[in-house]
Amino acid sequence: MESMNMATGMSGMDMSSTAAPMASTPTSSPSSGMGMSGMGMGSGCKISMLWNWYSVDACFISSTWRITSKGKFAGSCIGVICLVIALEFLRRLQREYDAYLVKQHRVRNAQTHSSVHEQSSEDGHAPDIEASGKGNYDSNRVHVTSASSPAPDPVTNPKSQRLVPTVFQQAIRALLHMLQFAVAYFIMLLAMYYNGYIIICIIIGAYLGSFIFSWEGIQMTDA
């Protein structure tokens, strides 16, 4: 009997010792799942993965960009608008630089074309382009073709030209593209905070940027 009592006591002690760690194991509370949709990880920042209208105590990109007052939030909204406008400016700058390269190429071709005409007049030979209207311009010389219709002239018909930028020109074009990519990616990160005010500012900046920097001539072609 004594041995049976001792065995029963030892088994009871084992059950109580195994139950103690189980009781001390912390359980997840409903408030622990609010870390991503509510307050930040101990920094006091309001960060949400759902649509929100946070203003004061909201954080963007990092904890150092924390909104501590309404004035600071208004300044952040204006900065976001200006950032989107800057993106539209970079896009316009890319188009203007490409147009500058095309214009520079046409001027160079026109100078080469005129020098060929002057050289032909000094040699006492009339250029065949003006005589028959069937000339074909080949960057350095003029020759006559026997085709029934005149070949396109690179000076009078710019669409027949194909411009290949130099290494330096392409480096500038790639730099402008890199800046556009960086600014656009930064704007995308801001939009991923799902803050209604910030998203509205992004839309306003896109409208103002397009209004200012897309105000240019529209090419009209015959149908």
Model description:
This protein is 56% helix and 7% strand. Helix 2 (70-122) runs antiparallel to helix 4 (167-191) and helix 2 (70-122) runs parallel beside helix 5. It has five helices and four strands. The chain is elongated and about 85 Å long. It starts with a helix and ends in a 10-residue tail after the last helix. It is mostly helical. The chain has a two-stranded antiparallel ribbon.
As a whole number of angstroms, the C-alpha radius of gyration is 36 Å
Order of adjacent strands in the largest pleated sheet? 1-2
Mean pLDDT: 75
Give the N-terminus to C-terminus distance in angstroms: 111 Å
Number of strand elements: 4
Helix content: 55-70%
**Gross morphology:** elongated
H and E string: HEEHHEEHH
If helices are DSSP runs of H or I spanning 4 or more residues, what is the number of helices? 5
**What class, by secondary structure content?**
mainly alpha
Poorly predicted tracts of residues: 15-37, 129-151
Oligomer: single chain
What summary fits the major beta sheet? 2 strands, antiparallel
Sheet-strand content, in percent, reads 5-15%
